[in-house]
Write a structure and sequence with these properties.
Chain lengths: 205, 205
């Protein structure tokens, strides 16, 4: 295997689309989630995110990276206003609708209607869930961090509730994403099926 | 499909291992990387991370979540001291060694030797690469953010160089992780093979 080396100048010399695809696919597989919020006017918003990251289990919390506020303004304004958002794991059965939710719809349009997904509500979380999703997480906004290098944000939420299929939590607490048709994404557009390979024991020196 | 709902109290009532597995697997698939650093004394350090997140393509940068400094002290001290770290994407051929690198080795022990992986160096980055990896990224520390909810950190690095197999970058800039035996992880111990399913066009309303 012949190895090549690209430095900063080589990456900057790529055209815009090439560079976006290259850097976005470089870190490997990512999970893909529909993020639901509700506006002050009661309009349900959905966005597609591939940057959800585990923050901690006690308290149970997750984060995600949000691009500049000019790009993801609806999601940001809504979750700051209501204090809530939902993460709905994309599976094979809703992939096309989920990908379509990444289109830039104007204010006043609910992506649920635009892409053909149903709203599900609970009393604890002031944000819409995607009914067709199988693993759904309701979160309360906890904190945000401004990332100087490119004016993006890390948003951290505390898990308030989890909706998932009866029987999906194994005796050790594991949820097997592949068993529920979970998928992964590399970059912004390339989706992967998952197949469980192996579970390894806790490593000791 | 019967749906169940867990609230904060239900999650807190799980035993420690169950809760850790549950929350860690909840967000779906994640990439898995060996993070390389070098200490001031010249000892090469490797850690296993499943929290690498895309921050942006211009400038090209990535971030990762680091647990409290008591847990991941070597990695943190080294990268703050030298200003550099490497991300080496785990593939099927080095999975067992990579997982073993998550064990807590004492100071003064190089995980490279302990788990049986080879060091590769370049002149631009003062941190060791994993020679056996296929997709290797060298980064310069850029900024860090303290996450209040559980005293973890977001560390952001600027990509300085990328080492990868000749022919692995497609004409559109995509790197196909599955073609290079890339794998995913759910939680801390469950590994998945990847199979490319489909590439979808840029979504428009």
């Amino acid at each position: 295997m012949m190895e090549i080396k690209l430095n900063t100048e080589d990456i900057e010399a790529m055209d815009r689309d090439q560079r976006r695809n290259f850097v976005n696919t470089l870190s490997g597989i990512k999970n893909v989630q529909l993020l639901g919020t509700q506006s002050a006017e009661g309009i349900d918003n959905l966005g597609l995110f591939n940057s959800v990251v585990h923050i901690g289990a006690a308290p149970a919390c997750l984060g995600f990276i949000m691009r500049t506020l000019t790009v993801e303004r609806h999601t940001y304004n809504n979750l700051k206003k209501t204090g809530y958002f939902t993460l709905n794991q994309v599976h094979q059965g809703i992939l096309e609708q989920a990908h379509q939710a990444s289109a830039k719809y104007p204010s006043g349009v609910s992506e649920f209607e635009a892409v053909g997904l149903q709203v599900q509500r609970t009393s604890n979380v002031q944000a819409p869930y995607v009914k067709e999703a199988k693993i759904k997480i309701g979160l309360a906004f906890h904190e945000e961090h401004y990332i100087q290098i490119n004016h993006s944000w890390l948003v951290v939420g505390r898990i308030v509730e989890v909706l998932l299929p009866d029987g999906s939590i194994g005796p050790t607490g594991h949820v097997d994403t592949a068993a529920w048709d979970g998928i992964g994404v590399s970059g912004l557009d390339t989706y992967y099926n998952l197949e469980q390979k192996q579970q390894l024991p806790y490593a000791r020196p």
